[in-house]
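step: validate -> pass
step: tokenize input -> pass
step: predict -> running
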Amino acid sequence: MRVLVVGSGGREHALCWAIAASPLLRKLWCAPGNPGIAAVAECVPIGVLDIPALVSFAMDNQVDLVMPGPEAPLVAGLADALSRVNIACCGPNAAAAALEGSKTFTKEVADAAGIPTARWERFDDAATAREFVLRRGAPIVIKADGLAAGKGVVVAATEAEALAAITDFMQNATLGAAGASVVIEECLTGEEVSFFALCDGTTAIPLGAAQDHKRVGDGDTGPNTGGMGAYSPPPCVPPALADEIMHGFIHPALREMAERGTPFRGILFAGLMLTEDGPKLIEYNVRFGDPECQCLLLRLKSDLLAALVAACNGTLADITLQWSDSAVVAVVMAAIGYPANPRRHTPIGTLALAEQIMGVQVFHAGTEILNGQLVSNGGRVLTVCATGKTIASARTAAYTAVDAIDWPEGFCRRDIAWRALPAAHH
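step: predict -> pass
step: emit ->
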């Protein structure tokens, strides 16, 4: 098979790494890719949102399957454009990608399908939204309705914070059109987990759970980021709960989407809060998380490409995936100044030393080669992953690898997987 992966981050490096191992593969490209991906795939300089160029590349090169990493091209209609030229895309069409593209749509689907979620209201007008906040009080959650690259959610501890978010999103248009409407919902408390399933429109098979660390600093402090690390499997999702999540959050969403005439194909990502009253839906995403993807694919023993093909063909019912019992811990190394103002083009050395450590795999995200030297070129730059018998041993290996990398302008959180480990490890 000839396969094109779309994206340039750690998630896409992990996808390329897993697909490259498939006996079904003949040729692998990644657009635009990065220097780490270049070791397993041919990188082509096409941007993720340049849909006409992606489609013509796929046609010219007789690509059999396109695997998009990020959500933006899916929301923009990449799958639709590929289907018009009969090229399989393992991702939802634009109508189904509204599960991530519109917070309101997600809430309507959840309510129609009886999926437990936070109480919510939608507002198109800032004054009414403010009145609602003052009536409800804090803590309260303000969400921009549209796609905002992870920056559209404010968990406001005070009414003042909530009102400031409304002003930012709706009046100062800090997120552009994405924040013109907002969804305001009750604040759920508990442990947050990411759960993934692969879907073919009617059937879904579990890809497992991971726990992500969103805030930039140790102890979950500082601003939200795209994710500073993850681990899998999280002890808070035992097999019985995973079954409950499939029955309560994945299958009903799939049925509801099919009934609406927008069957969902690709990776369905349920962000859940494990509350005292059981799991509740925070959001759906229409792709793998980053860095959760890196954790899950390192635990997958089966052929990823065969499963992606089945998702496109509607034959997932015939697929059984095998998973390793090992744990994986992924630590993101980011450029100093991330998330606001990451320092660019700082040299990174001795990656090979890190990769020699038993069980370690380093995935590239924001890297590039400049004058023959690997340098940072983004906020999140590397995902340093390690597999171990236990979360504790995987974590030790991951941090040993981090310390073997010579990159003074990089930093990471030192407490990834803290929820899964006894207090002594924090």
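step: describe -> DSSP finds 13 helices and 22 strands in the chain.
step: cleanup -> pass
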